[in-house]
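#struct-help
A.M.: can someone run this one for me? Single chain, 723 residues.
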Amino acid sequence: MQKIHPKTLQDLEFPTVLQQVSARCNTELGKELALAITPVSDKEELMQILGQTSEYLASFSNDNRIPNHGFDQINSELGLLKIENSTLEIAGFRKIGGICKTVAIHQKFFKKFKEYYPLLFEKVDVLDGNTEIPDAIDAVIDKFGEIKDSASDELRHIRLQINQVRGKINQSFGAALGRYQSLDYLDEIRESVVENRRVLAVKAMHRKKVKGTVMGTSKTGSIVYIVPETTLTYTRELNNLEFEEKEEIQRILNQLTNHIRPFSDLLKAYQNYLTDIDITAAKAKYAHEMNGVLPEINQERELYLREAYHPLLYLSNKRKHQKTWPQTIKLHPENRIIVISGPNAGGKSITLKTIGLLQVMVQSGMLIPVHERSSVCLFDKILTDIGDNQSIENHLSTYSYRLKNMNQFLKRCNNETLFLIDEFGTGSDPELGGALAEAFLEVFYEREAYGVITTHYANLKALANELPHATNANMLFNSKTLEPTFQLVLGEAGSSFTFEVAQKNGIPYSLINKAKKKIERGKVRFDATIAKLQKERSKMVQTGTRLQEEETKAREEADRLEQLNSKVKSKLESYQELYDHNQRMIQLGNKVNTAAERYFIDHKKRPLISELLRIVETENSKRKKTSAKKAKEKQEQQQQVAQELEQQIKKVRVEKKIKQKKEIQAEKNKPRPVFKVGDRVRMTDGKAVGSIDVLEKGKAVVNYGIFTTNVSVDQLELVEAKK
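D.P.: on it. Structure tokens below:
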């Protein structure tokens, strides 16, 4: 299967579904990747994903609940492991240990219940089990995130010394405290803590009587905080030991990092698995809330959605305690295209979106809210044209945009395509737009594509009735209450209830009756301004633009040819010079080689030098310097060629302008025909032929058979005079 276009996903509000799935993920990484879900192109992979989601959903209704899969992502730790001599922090080790233990729990669980969850067991069973990593981490770090004393013998020894020194500090401090207290040197609070050190609270007047290091004073200055001299020696020893402890801890963490480093790929696979399980669980929760199931995936090209709900509408109404109406629709080789008609606000568009969204969800590995006996097939392409697609950015009207969209449909549509089009053919003249829509629909039908469209056009309803593998459908509407029932019925077209709905909404009956009479006459009167589509001034502007474009193209072509000719000429000259130079070098080399061989035999320097000087003088005599006169002549010759080419271009431009002016003048001088009632005529820039019914004051009423129009005779040209 091919990848479905993002525009289709946007039209069907698939990103909103992804947001709701993402909200049901437990982990940040799962939430992020859930938003990036797209239709799966590989069928085998898709069936695996659908099966896994269905198995997870089944776990909600049995006693064998799947264990928790929560984890903290380790992307930064995986990045550090790729850097040589890097060291992980304690928090990173704890996250890695947690992931390993969670995967181990899943492996044990799914192995025990593989009969219930065969696909989920297969997913986790491909991962290599590993207890070495968590065991190594647990041997170093305790459950509170502290390095254990047993992490190394050296660390145990250092911490033992630290405890001993701290005992001596407390003992010496207690002795000093008792001594200075008995001498009444201390304040009532006796002691305090400054910079994590116990200090004596000495009265300011006795500060010089207490030996030690001053750490500060109180705000009032009445108390001076002093570390007793007897504890300073032990404090320095403690600082040294604490530094050694940090060094040993760093060494232990380095060693642990190096031990784990070879398993970085396995850790990445563990994280990917838990992320996938998180997304699978979120899909299952989403399906559980909207009664989603896994329909049959068939190979018979049949799409049978029985009692199908629109997921977003269903969940929205569920929160509001409102009823949602299901739809049943069936597409198969004998009924590939359905044309849905009926009144506005009757549910046509929501039915269309339901079909498309459910199909996209299935092909993205999600369960859907349909009857369990539903059956779906898979499509390579899903093409949509839904909603108001007016493009402000590209200055395109709705109809222009839809035409461009239809052009893409024509390029991509085949027998593996599902197309969904809302209000097919709207945006233009009803008759012309309907005819074009009919032509498009015939092409889609001939290519054996599957599709559903909504429309008000009678000709499309008639076409669906005529084509053997297409059918009409309608959204039921209560003709008495004029309320929609939101039920789709296959086999017959629907009425728009235009006048009935208008009457219900307070439109005067006299106005409705007048409109009905206009329909009965079968005539359509156009606004006179619409008939004046092209004027002489716009034609002149177009002609001038065309001439300017042709002139620009001619100038660009002349410049291009001139540059090409210059490049070719320059290359030929360069090649010739290179060839001549190489020939001279070969001859010169032969002469030098001969002289070298002679010297090799007789070892006589004087004849060698004489021969080399003779060769040099001979070569210099052959060198010719180009005179300034010849260079000037060459430059003048090039300028002359350029002037001749420019004159030829100007001549061509003048001839084109003269020819164009003659054609315009001839068109202006052409005598206007005298029209009579009954003459067959057409508009100067039109193709439809009609007959003149009335002539009055330079105006003519032209009858085209199904309608008449009032136009100026200046806009008409004679096709056939009345006999």
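A.M.: thanks! The longest helix spans residues 536-602.
D.P.: also worth noting: The longest strand covers residues 186-194.
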